[in-house]
Amino acid sequence: MTSLISLQGVSRRYGEGASELMALNQISLEIQEGEFIAIMGASGSGKSTAMNILGCLDTPTAGAYLFKGVHVEALSRDQRARIRRRYLGFVFQGFNLLARTSAQENVELPLLYRGDSQAGRKKAAREALAAVGLAGWEHHTPSQLSGGQQQRVAIARAIVTEPAVVLADEPTGNLDTQRSHEIMSLLVGLNRDHGITVLMVTHEPDMAAYAHRMVHFKDGKVLKDAANPNPSSSPPLQSDLTPETV
Ligand code: ADP
Ligand code: MG
Predict the structure, then answer these.
(1) Can you count the helices (H) and strands (E) in the chain?
(2) What is the 29 CA–ligand 1 centroid distance (Å)?
(3) 89 alpha carbon to ligand 2 midpoint, in Å?
(4) pLDDT tens for residues 172-223?
(5) Domains of the chain
(6) Residue 182, class by beta-carbon neighbours within 10 Å (0-12 exposed, 13-18 middle, 19+ buried)?
């Protein structure tokens, strides 16, 4: 069976000569559809470099990356963008929402890029916001939302296109413990209830504990890759009260 994702001896070199740095050094990884993987490791160990490659934002300087059997390193920039739009959703540590733009419009954005109709965008974005417990918050801008709510908008934006894979790079890095667990509840639900493959970078063991498999990076190499026999179970997500009822 073809893996959803296959990294084969992938390296990523930055710089030349004396300033050369191997951010990734011959990484090999097989990821199957429906997995929930936590990528861990010290700062500078290559986690974000790996996520950028997995997310088709960057290409390896050596080795092969196959996504659904397709050699990503051989694709053009446009072809990689097409893979991103069709199959991938992204969540970042800093939320990366447009500031003076409502939650609704932020979530509609990937659908706008895809050329969906206005009516279709509106409906899908409302549904995605409801799925992250933010029904009633559509017209709020990021500055009117808490950090946890902003990250939930970002998750709604990531899932509105119904991606096969969600890539989350330290999604709870800017959040307190309770908000972090709420974000993990959402990621667990996407994986369990919607079959979305989740690849999450974290340095917090409590958050990694939700994943079914943990991959540890060290100095650009995979130090350890093991199943988590007892993933943490997440509390059910509560919908936020609508602003009118607060
Ligand atoms: P992590 O996400 O695990 O903290 P990164 O993947 O961001 O690590 O970085 C791995 C190594 O590559 C680090 O030494 C970092 O300084 C270096 N690096 C990352 N991005 C660049 C870049 N654009 N140019 C040069 N070096 C980089
Ligand atoms: Mg990083």
Answers:
(1) 7, 10
(2) 19
(3) 17
(4) 999 999 999 999 999 999 999 999 999 999 999 999 999 999 999 999 999 9
(5) 33-59+76-227 (3.40.50.300)
(6) buried
